[in-house]
Amino acid sequence: MLSELTTQENNLIRSQSYINGEWVQAASGKIFEVSNPATGEVMATVPDMSREDVRKAIDAAHDAWPSYRDLTAKERAALLKKWYALILEHKQELARLMTMECGKVLQESLGEVEYGAGFIEWFAEEAKRTYGDVIPANTKDKRIVVIKQSIGVAAAITPWNFPLAMITRKVGPALAAGSPVVVKPPSETPLTALAISYLAEKAGFPPGVYNTVTTTDNSEVGKEFCENKKVRKLSFTGSTPVGKILMSQCASTLKKLSLELGGNAPFIVFNDADVDAAVKGAIVSKFRNSGQTCVCVNRIYAQDNIYDEFVEKLSKAVAALTVGNGLDKGVQIGPLINEKGLAKVKRHVEDALSKGATIIQGGKPMDGLFYEPTVLADVTRDMIISQDEVFGPAAPVSRFSTEEEVIQLANDTDYGLASYFYTQDMARCWRVAEALESGMVGINEGLISTEVAPFGGIKESGLGREGSKYGMDYYMEIKYLCFGGIK
């Protein structure tokens, strides 16, 4: 597999973890393989680090903290800008590498490189804007000032579905704030993480400021992040059950947490909607990365009068999607990440069919880790696919009659990450947007992620926000200064 890579891509492939400015193996010598989900071929091996190895990375970050936080905001911003430029310079190689290790189609990978780099650029600029306050004092002889300071070592646990952007969304604000980072990428997609670590090294971040550890021992490494007192902030993107475990484990050290967890996004199409626009929005939101994103549409609700038209047009659009290796020209749907992901899609579709749903398009597994892009009609609340995030290319469509009914259906979930709806009624835009219980709402829009807006959910979809001007606050402490004796 490595023989198919270009010289530039080979330069970016790292077979070691990055700790304290050095490329290192696990102390035990253990390694694990990284495979291409589209072909099954092994791309590379990387260190399988232990809890003790990770502790060394945390120690290095903690030791680097005093000198790094003392850099001016302008100096930290300059480092981030160099990193940003290097990532864009290697956009093509990073995108191909990402497609090979996680399966998403090349065009989406190219988009992710730009999206992920955008967080670095944004927070390079925000580094110089971490303003405090001067508060009117309660007595004449006092002055009250509020400042913001770096929180300390930040640990990031990232998912496989966005192997670059989920890192930069976390480490961008941390590095801008003056906090060294320790990144643990998923075992499915460590190569992209190591590649951008290499570019961070080239950008000139001091030893210990940026660390990346690869491992399959997620439980023990997670415990180390949570229980180590030198880690003052943990950011995690992943499942709600794992997020709850991490939150519980962090209680012993009372860390600041950002948790971006599971979703169950509703997508509502009202009678007065532009149906063609709604179909386009559903395609981009449901089938991006083969349905493997946390903000993917999971439940589609179409109102009575346009239900049949919407299902028909959606099915035609889905039938036109091309499945295959993400590096091949014209492919729009890549593989599922692994057998577990494929089995989940199968289980959801089979359960829906057993309870009365109808397959309008697709509905079958293909060779390898591929699954046909699927549309299911007549879906009801009691089906698993209505209650659980399918994380695959299957779109279930349900019918509804009234605005009040669909809001109740949309909110009838423990999750609240993203939601979407289409209507041409401006009053309804405001009513429904305010009524939906989710942290992000797409109104006549299926693609909502951007570095300039706060990303995050409510209820069991997590806590905290990433991106935007709000993202810096989660990597900083607020300190109140009281000056007395002023006459």
UniProtKB/TrEMBL annotation:
It holds the Pfam family Aldedh. Coiled coil: none annotated. It comes from the Bacteria. Transmembrane segments: none annotated. InterPro entries: Ald_DH/histidinol_DH, Ald_DH_C, Ald_DH_CS_CYS, Ald_DH_CS_GLU, Ald_DH_N, Aldehyde_DH_dom, Aldehyde_DH_Superfamily, Succ_semiAld_DH. One of its GO terms (biological process) is gamma-aminobutyric acid catabolic process. One of its GO terms (molecular function) is succinate-semialdehyde dehydrogenase (NAD+) activity. The active site is at E260. Residues 23-480 form the Aldehyde dehydrogenase domain. Keywords: Oxidoreductase. The keyword Oxidoreductase applies. PANTHER family: SUCCINATE-SEMIALDEHYDE DEHYDROGENASE, MITOCHONDRIAL. Belongs to the aldehyde dehydrogenase family. This is NAD-dependent succinate-semialdehyde dehydrogenase. It comes from Rhodocytophaga rosea.
